Amino acid sequence: MYGAPLTKLWNADPARPGRVCYPPPQMSIGSSPPRRDGLSKLTGRALYADDLRPHRCLYGATVRSARAHARIVSIERDPAFDWTGVTVATAADLPGPNVVTLMTDDQPILADGVVRHAEEPIALVAAPTRERALAAVRAVRVTYEDLPALLDPLEAEGSPVQIFGNDNVFKRIHLVHGEPSRVTGYLIRGRYRTGLQEQLYIEPQSMIAAPRPDGGVTVTGSMQCPYYVDRAVKRMLGHDRVNVVQSVTGGGFGGKEEYPSMLACHAVLLSRLTGLPVKITYRRDEDLRATTKRHPAVIDLSTLVSPQGELLELHARIWMDGGAYHTLSTVVLSRAVLHAGGPYRCPHVNILGTVVATNTPPNGAFRGFGAPQAQWAMERHLDRIARVLGMDPLAVRRANLYREGDVTATGQTLHDPGAFAVLDAAEAAAKAPFRRKTLRPGVTGASMKAGRGVALAWHGCGFTGNGEAKIRGKVGLEVHGNELLVLSSSTDIGQGTETIFPMIVGDTLGIAQDRVTVAQPDTGRVPDSGPTVASRTAMVVGGTCFKAATELRAKLEAKVGPGSFDEQLLRWRNLGLADPTHESTYEVDASVVWDPDTYQGDAYPTFGWSCVIVDLRVDEDTGEVLYDRVVTATDVGRALAPVLTSGQIEGGTLQALGWATAEEVVLGANGAMRNDRLTNYIIPTALDAPEMVTCLVEIPFAGGPFGAKGIGEIPMDAPAAAVAQAIEQAVGIVLDSLPMTPERVLAAMGAR
Amino acid sequence: MITRFVCNGQPVEVETPPMTRLLDVLREELRLTGSKEGCGEGECGACTVRIDGVPVMSCLVPVAQVAGCNVQTIEGLAGALVHPVQAAMLEHGGAQCGICTPGLCMSAAALLEENPHPSVEQVRVALAGNLCRCTGYQKVIEAVSHALVDTGE
Predict the structure, then answer these.
(1) Residue among A293, A304, A458, A308 nearest A375 (CA)
(2) Looking at the complex, does the CB of residue B32 fall below 8 Å from at least one CB of chain A?
(3) Are B105 and B133 contained in the same domain?
(4) pLDDT per position as a tens digit, B47-86
(5) Is residue B63 domain-shared with residue B16, that is, in the same domain?
(6) First-residue to last-residue Cα distance in chain A
(7) Which residues from chain A sit within 8 angstroms of residue B24, using beta carbons?
(8) What's A467-587's CATH class?
(9) A118 touches chain B (CB under 8 A)
(10) Within this chain, do residues B50 and B71 fall inside the same structural domain, yes or no?
């Protein structure tokens, strides 16, 4: 469809280090028009959920569990508090099943009789002001009878404490390929760990429920997946008079994939009881303590390798902590298992993954979705192999990177793997000199040691296996006069959906992209395009935009014959026909075959590839890591709008550096986040961020619009391991656990 | 208590308890919702406004403290026009989800008025109080560094 695959490199311009070099524009694809929502965001006119204030809107707030695992003995209102105008809701007030509808019906909307994690919602209040609502929360007294709590995921399987099923296992996945244990070589083992990470969207969770004149409800709020919310609210209410509208959303990163469904159920319940609009906006500390995080992982790897460092056999054991409820843990584990081997060939593979329940707040979706954890382990393991064999870490990688025609652990044959292309591009760009960042006040520089690290990653684009075939995402197109409207439930959460969909539709129809706009996602108006997750929006839903535009042209042509789109439209109207509309459904390539039982087949329609080279310095006095420059080279298939594409990569890269050296979630004795403020949960600032050189490598994917692949998550995969390798080179310490905070770096240096 | 100050060039008068946060006065009383609340404790910078030209986090300022002051919010940064910082952010892709963007623009505008030719390090220092989770700051820094060229210096 797009001609023979060809590899084009758009390297950083060596004459201007730090600058991205963009491919020449061709129609609108490949150019970078200003983002559609840019001006309204820059001038403060864009309305986010908490900026909306419907007439007579009440404020909702949540009574939460203080205990990790307990029976609720009583929920009482403090008689000394003035309850005038305050509404309280508990599980007894729910009109339908007490379940947050997602994958498994295990999570209640409000705890009923028992709490399984600290911060679990027990009751809700609504009041005319935020202050009154918060005061009312403090005036609700919950009495508990403590139950034994299970907090350590490694103790979950045999624990007498039962949280899920009879063994606390949400899911076990076993992937075997080749004939493990039939070869001999050097046996190298290691254990690798990763910690919790908070998405930390800057806009806290926020949702408004407002009664409709027909007795239904409109839910408006900050979210990634309007149809998740739609299904959850309809099931709770037991009727379909529900529509869900996405307001401008201040970041998601997975944190607004599934959690908003619960928040929406809460707002809708309060609205139903009061007959008024209700808004719930979390304070930052509440958001940090109560909402989902990245799954922590413990990963044991053992490999047999040849004297040349080639992987002969890989055994992986993955444990992940899902928290008290299932949320999306099964799918997170699946992606971890499928990415466990990294972008490296290995003929014999045996991977066993388990995700378990503990009495901690549920973990959930976060950019990368299990793949960053798995690839952190594999990259660190390759460094261990290099250490044992006395090889250069890059040489070990070169000996194993996937090549054309290689077969993955699921038996998928790779075509056009980009591993060497991104490595070459990153190495070329990293040759350019860079300016060391000026040291901070008080740092002399005498104690600084420099290091460089390199790591690679792959990332499956879109849903795993037959996921897209199940979802059958839809996109609608409507012609209104001279303009076109795209109807889709894909949300723009900053990545630029509103900007790229019109470019795809405009170029496909051969008209200017600015004649096309995207409708605000409203489940009462737009079809279900599937969720805004899994690096699928540009590739899969963008591909459906391409299909819809192509089919619309065919529809016109069948009626009025060939011509330009505008000529066809004119002739269509001359026939007295109403403005045309069309809806298309994503179709999975029939050649993609996946067996979810054996975990064999084509795990993903295609893979993205990335290479990261980090230059940093370690302060031997404080253990602090200062980043000088990060070069990334990423195979994006086709950069639809390069400024948006590289913006995704740069933002994801810094989020990964935060995971590597700054961000640590400290759990209290009750299993909830103790450092629940931005003063002690540290994310990188402009001072911490490195100079970034972003190379976009384009190896077109025939199944993506104009060759595009998904790129949202891959920037999260490789940086942390590159940082660990650079620290090792700088000061000679080996760190196999994340995060590598100054305290841990200092402790490791002390133990040298 | 009645507090009088100038907001975006207009004299305003609000009646609130004196310790009411300036951010709440702006958002709830004056309906200027461009200043955002990201943390409520002066860490994220999404609520940055300028008081007599100085960028401050409005979630930390009791309204009584701005009596008689000139307060400028994102809505008043360029009036009906577009400030060079906003234009450069649009061109360079400095805004993604946009929730931190008004605060970043206020800090950047204050920097450029003080120092029209900042080094990259000076830009980083000036923006260090504004957390952004989307961009990695690369394009924000590019935008602010280029905005000074566009001001006709």
Answers:
(1) A458
(2) yes
(3) yes
(4) 999 999 999 999 999 999 999 999 999 999 998 889 999 9
(5) yes
(6) 57
(7) none
(8) alpha beta
(9) no
(10) yes
pLDDT tens per residue, range A408-434: 999 999 999 999 999 999 999 999 998
Nearest CA among A643, A641, A665, A650 for reference residue A714: A650
CB of A335 less than 8 A from some CB of B: no
DSSP letter for B21, please.
B
Same domain as B65, residue B89? no
- Contacts with A631 from chain B: Cβ below 8 Å: none
Locus of tokens 């003035």: A82
The complex scores an ipTM of 0.97
pLDDT band at A24 (very low <50, low <70, confident <90, very high): very low
B73, B74, B134, B141: best mutation site toward chain A, by most A Cβ within 10 Å?
A: B134
* Phi, psi (deg, nearest 5) at residue A419: -60, -50
- What CATH number does residue B102 fall under? 1.10.150.120
Distance (Å, whole) CA B95 – CA B99: 9
Contact call for A201 and B34, based on CB within 8 A: no
CA atoms within 13 A on the CB side of A612: 33
Domain boundary among B40, B55, B76: B76
Q: What percent of chain A has pLDDT over 70?
A: 95
What span, in angstroms and rounded, lies between the C-alpha atoms of A680 and A192?
25
Residue B52 belongs to domain with CATH number: 3.10.20.30
**Same fold yes or no, A55-147+205-281 and A467-587:** no
Identify whether residues B112 and B96 lie together within a single domain: yes
What is the residue-wise DSSP string for A510-569? Answer: TS-GGGEEEPPPBTTTS-----S-TT-IIIIIHHHHHHHHHHHHHHHHHHH-SS-HHHHH
Q: Where are the domains of chain A?
A: 9-14+293-464+598-750, 55-147+205-281, 467-587
List, in sequence order, the alpha helices (H) in A14-129: 38-42
Q: B8 to chain A nearest CA, in Å?
A: 13
Q: Could you tell me which residues come within 8 angstroms of residue B56 by beta carbon, excluding any fewer than 6 positions away?
A: B48, B49, B50
B94 → chain A, closest CA residue: A647
For B81, name the nearest residue in chain A, comparing CA atoms only: A43
> What average pLDDT does this structure show over B147-153?
55
Contact B95 A694 (CB under 8 A): no
Q: Quick check: A46 contacting B, CB < 8 Å?
A: yes
Q: Which domain holds residue B108?
A: 84-150
| B58/B16 same-domain check | yes
Fold of A9-14+293-464+598-750: Aldehyde Oxidoreductase; domain 4 (3.30.365)
- B22, B50, B76 - which closes a domain: B76
Residue of B nearest to A439 (CA): B121
pLDDT, tens digit (0-9, with 9 covering 90-100), for A489-528: 999 999 999 999 999 999 999 999 999 999 999 999 999 9
Q: CATH: 3.40.50.1820, 3.50.30.10, 3.90.1170.50, 1.25.40.10. Which one for A55-147+205-281?
A: 3.90.1170.50
Query: Which has the closest alpha carbon to A101: A324, A290, A261?
Result: A261
Q: Which residues in chain A are contacts of B86 at CB distance < 8 A?
A: 39, 42-43
Q: Given CB atoms, is B135 within the 8 Å cutoff of chain A?
A: yes
Q: What is the mean pLDDT of chain A?
A: 94
Reply yes or no on whether the pLDDT at A438 is more than 80.
no
Query: Do A683 and A658 contact (CB within 8 A), yes or no?
Result: yes
Q: Is the same domain home to B72 and B88?
A: no
Record: contact B99-A43, CB cut-off 8 A: no
Distance from CA of B63 to the nearest CA of A (A): 17
Minimum Cα–Cα distance from B46: chain A residue: A202
The closest CB to that of B98, out of A248, A438, A653, belongs to A248
Q: Report the residue from B35, B41, B90 with minimal CB separation from A34.
A: B90
Q: Looking at A304-351, list the stretches that DSSP marks H as alpha helix, in order from N- to C-terminal side.
A: 329-338
